[in-house]
Amino acid sequence: MRPHSGVRATTLVLAAVAMTVLVWLVLRLMSSGGSSVPEPGWVGAVAMLFLGGGLLVAGWQVRKVRDGAPNPAITPLRAARTLVLGQAGALTGSVLVGWYLANVLVLLPDADVESQRGRIWPFLVHAAVAVLLAAAGMLVQAWCRLRPRDDEDDDLDRA
């Protein structure tokens, strides 16, 4: 039996593209009705950085235990929760990339206007931070992955 491979990069790309298309359609509909694109708050970027940092710290602790360092605070349940949190962080980051890029796409036709260019940059910064969150989630997922035991190779050869 092959173990589950976890969240894949293609899944993250598909989630980001789907979110970009969906949000772009909604924002175009709203902007045609006279509404403007909402401004991103810097609190969002700081929160994503904080979450990514927390993910990396938790994942690093699990990685050290996986590699043989004793730490009684890291139980199998905590390691599993860290894995799921890493996967959730990766998916959240990819969806947020789609959200912020859709906002950029709506503002892009007016990028020749200085005020609109000034509105595009914060969305690009937020998208970059969301990419970092997704990358942190994927790294934590890799750190939480158990290495195959030697006797498991024999079982796979016989099957």
Principal-axes geometry comes out as elongated
User: What is the element string, with H for helices and E for strands?
Assistant: HHHHH
Point out poorly predicted stretches. none
Let me know the average pLDDT: 89
Provide the number of structural domains: 1
Question: Taking Cα atoms only, what radius of gyration do you get, to the nearest Å?
Answer: 20 Å
Structural class: mainly alpha
Distance between the termini: 9 Å
| Percentage of residues in DSSP E strands | under 5%
β-strand number: 0
User: Residue share in helices?
Assistant: over 70%
Keywords:
single chain, 159 residues, elongated
Would you spell out the secondary-structure blueprint of this structure?
Layout: H1 9-32, H2 42-66, H3 76-107, H4 114-144, H5 150-158
Helix pairs in contact: 1-3, 2-3, 2-4, 3-4
